[in-house]
Amino acid sequence: MLNFWLARSGLSHEQIGSIADWAMSEKGWLSSPQLSHLRNGSVVKPSHRNLDALGGANEAIWLWQRRGEQVCLRRYGPHSAYRIEDQLLNNAIWLHHPEHTDEALNYADFCDLQAGYLVLPYLGEVNLSPSEARALSQALADLFDRLAQERLSQGQTMREALDAVLAAYPSSASRDRREHLRSVILGSADYTKAELEKEMFFLAETVRTLRGLQEGDYGPAELHAELSAFRRRA
Predict the structure, then answer these.
(1) What gap in Å lies between CA 13 and CA 169, rounded to an integer?
(2) Which 3 state secondary structure label does DSSP give 11?
(3) pLDDT of the residue at 98
(4) Closest C-alpha to 147, from 227, 232, 67, 34
(5) Which DSSP helix (H) or strand (E) runs through 207?
(6) Which residue among 3, 50, 117, 198 has its CA within the 20 to 30 Å range from the CA of 34?
(7) pTM of the entire structure?
(8) Is residue 202 a contact partner of residue 173, using CB atoms and an 8 Å limit?
(9) Per-residue model confidence (pLDDT) at position 153
(10) CA distance 77 to 24
(11) Backbone angles phi, psi at 171, to 5 degrees
(12) What's 102's DSSP letter?
């Protein structure tokens, strides 16, 4: 969920943390290390404080975009005190409730997500077996190799084509993750089950960008289906 949210918004850990602090009217509610631990799986379950902060940030973005700046200022105070620019709030996305698409997920909803009582179908998450993950990792390398090969016909060298593929990987992810994708494409590494499950949104975004598709037209579910179909043909 965090991968989806941050990648779609283009928000850094520091930026989502600042929005959370603004929403909670106090600094220190959601730090960059906490977000890193949650995203890389070193902390499996977020604390209620983390969930409250995430819900607050999500509602703040929703309120800014749906009700406007003045309503937000009356509720939260000046966002400039938290080094938040208007454009950041204008461009960020908020996560909606699956049954009430005009409503933002709040603290209680994030608790239900954590407990497994609520599912967000629009995330398109997939659960893989270890053997399927290995096979999909290989199919993924083949897919990105084909996307790079398509650029050779445009006069690019193989190195330039590979760099173009990697440049489409969402900028909100770390450089290490982009370099790991390079290693997977070159055949010197594979994605593990845990890595692939976390990466599916970023990888789908990369494919969508390379193909020039509109947002929402291609996601993790479509990537999973394409890779599975390629495996069956191989």
Answers:
(1) 17
(2) coil
(3) 84
(4) 227
(5) helix 193-211
(6) 117
(7) 0.59
(8) yes
(9) 82
(10) 10
(11) -70, -15
(12) T
Residue 62 has a pLDDT of 96
* Structure tokens, 132: 């399927």
Q: Which residue reads 């010197």 in tokens?
A: 188
CB 78 within 8 A of CB 54: no
The confidence score (pLDDT) of residue 212 equals: 93
Question: What is the token pair recorded at 78?
Answer: 């000046």
Q: Going by C-beta distance under 8 Å and a sequence separation of 6 or more, which residues neighbour residue 149?
A: 161
The reported pLDDT for the residue numbered 154 is 84
Look-up of token digits 């053997």:
131
Structure tokens that stand for 167 in this block: 């440049």
The contacts of residue 36 (CB under 8 Å, 6+ apart) are 13
pLDDT, averaged per 10 consecutive residues of the chain (234 residues), comes to: 74 92 94 82 82 96 95 96 93 88 93 86 62 85 92 88 93 84 92 82 91 83 81 56
Q: Where are the domains of the chain?
A: 2-123, 130-233
The CA distance from 150 to 15, in Å, is 36
